[in-house]
Amino acid sequence: MTRFQSYLLNKVLWFLLAFCIALTLNFLLPRLIPGNPVDVIVGEMTSGGTLSGEVAQKVYAAYIAQFGLDQPIWMQFLFYLRSLARGDLGISFARSPARVQDLISQALPWTIALQLPAILTGWIVGNSLGVLTAYKKGWLDRGVFPIFMFISSMPYYCLAILLLYLLAVHLTIFPVAGGYSFAMTPALTWNFARSVVEHYILPFSSLVLIFIGGQSVGMRAMSIYELDADYVRYSRSLGVGDNRIIAYIFRNAMLPQITGLALAIGSMVSGALIAEIVFSYPGVGTLLFSAIRQNDYPVIQGVTLLIMIGVLTANFLVDVAYGFIDPRIRAKQVGER
Amino acid sequence: MTVMTQERARFKPGAAWLTGLKQSLAVTTLLNRRLLFSGSMLVLVIGFGVLGPIVLGRDNPMKTVGGLYDPPSEKIWLGTDNFGRDVFTQLMHGTRTSLVIGAIAGMEAILIGLLIGTMAGYIGGVVEEVLMALTNVVITIPSIVILILLSIAISTRSIFAMGLIIGLTSWPWTARAVRAQTSSLRTREHVDIARLSGAGTLSLVIWEILPYMLSYVVMAFVLQLNTGILQEAALSMLGLGPSNTISLGQMLNWALLWESVRTGAWWGFAPPALFLTLIAFSLLLLQASVDEILNPRLRKA
Q: How confident is the model at residue B14 (pLDDT cuts 50, 70, 90)?
């Protein structure tokens, strides 16, 4: 086995281990609830006065059987694994008979369409700004940088709330809620597309500003470190132009930033849960929010599973890519573990 | 042993650290100003949350004093929230709750991180491998998922429980850094001397290793405090905040649920949002400036 193969094998094993632990936690933790989830649901149904005692009993028994809660816990775990393998995440408690995977696949495109462009734009703009402020110093560094430093330390949902109030409620430039006008049904028309774009700008900007802030702060620190390197001094003494040197620095300071990008994409689903809630955007965050309020455990578990898969996969890919790019890392990590 | 104790007293790393700090403070005025700014901001915020309710005699943030989103007036400085409760009183109590949860989470994370990090770094071998494997697994599993699942599992969440849950997910980075520092520190000569003079493992770690990481531990705590406060806010806004009490995140949660943003009742959401921003910004600024004071290399930038 070559070094790279054993490094790869090591990483695959790690990925599988982490994945198994994640699955187990996802299965086990909601079952720590005193009694079981069905108690809660049936309890809420009966307290609302919608069901009489006898009917409640029947509903209870039906739910217990449906979720396999009368089985021993290891059997339940096997059932859970079997349905996961089939891509079946179960049935929503609150929106029965809707299937969890259908609810998630309706919400996921909105989240991705919101987050992915915001992450990419923020990454490109933020990194360029970071190098520029580090290299040029002057007014850019003193004037623009503190603003981004402030924005990057701001919780993203606070910025979202303030933008929503200022631009949508106070100045009424943008619509106040949703992914498209409530009066419309999704269709492939110009009007609908325009409505989607109008509703998109505000959530998008609130996320992109935070990303630009975070990336530029990180990139500036990396670049300042690189500015001290011998190759920069040497290039300067040779009289190499500014733009060329900036390009050199950019490439050298890039590696951690690429990791950051990959991890941001991997944690895309959990990255802006609350921004979606603030803007009532029809993505995974809003789905999770309503599921939590309705004690809709299958949906909550489905969303947490989705988040875990994204993050674990991104971590794994970054590790593999690093081992591929940088031979020092794979040598070190094989020796270390 | 007595000689050793005297030696230790003379070369107290704490003292050197302090003189270094003073010298650095004298040299860098800009840094000084930033430190002063962030420090005094934090003192103000903490004073507001801890002393405010006592000084102003407002001990019950749940008391109804008006109607739905009454605007600010002379008597009710920041208006009322959706249940007619005084926003200013809630802000004081909410700030305190958020700080307490952040502090519990931060301390727990630091303690677990120190325990696992020093054990792994000092003992080495199989213990180190097992502990670091555990740390790596916890790092990869996204903390928000564990936070959501655990919070759901606990039906009534006290302030203490919230702090514990959050601390439980945020220790791995500290453990990693502490392990790296410990394994480099344990090969130093002063540790060898202490070991030769018969000091036990525990006293070695406490007296010969921990003091050299003190500056790192303090900064890590500041960052963990910030993480804890923001995690609490995030959980509260998802609807999983502490029960029967008010925190900054819960104020925002109510403000969103009752549409204070869209109805233009700015006093419902702006105070907690601004306070969270202020706390986060001051803590990060404090961390950055203390970091620069302790690591002169960063200052050249």
A: low
Q: Running DSSP on this structure, what letter comes out for residue B209?
A: I
Instruction: Using the predicted structure, report yes or no on whether residue B215 has a pLDDT greater than 90.
Output: no
pLDDT at A131: 84
Tell me the CA distances in angstroms from A230 to A227, A237, A332, B299, one per residue in order: 8, 10, 25, 19
Residue numbers in B near A311 (CB within 8 A): 140-142
DSSP for A262-285? HHHHHTHHHHTHHHHHHHT-SSHH
How many residues are there in chain A? 337
Q: Is B42 on the interface with A (CB under 8 A)?
A: no
Q: What is the pLDDT of residue B4?
A: 44
Tens of pLDDT along A281-323?
A: 889 999 999 988 888 888 998 999 999 988 999 888 888 887 7
| pTM (2 d.p.) | 0.84
Mean pLDDT within A26-31: 82
Give yes or no for a cis peptide into A97 (omega within 30° of 0).
Answer: yes
Contact A334, A11 (CB under 8 A): no
* Structure-token match 């325990």, residue found: B115
DSSP assignment of A104-134 equals HHHHHHHHHHHHHHHHHHHHHHHHHHHHHHH
What domains are there in chain B, each with its CATH number? Answer: 18-298 (1.10.3720.10)
Is A29's CB within 8 Å of B261's CB?
A: no
pLDDT value, residue B97: 93
Q: Is the pLDDT of residue A1 over 50?
A: yes
| Three-state SS at B286 | helix
Contact B237 A32 (CB under 8 A): no
Window 284-303 of A, Cβ < 8 Å to B? 288-289, 292-293, 297, 300-301
Burial of A146: CB neighbours in 10 Å, binned 0-12, 13-18, 19+: exposed
B150-162 burial, b at 16+ Cβ within 10 Å, e below that, comes to: bbbebeebebebb
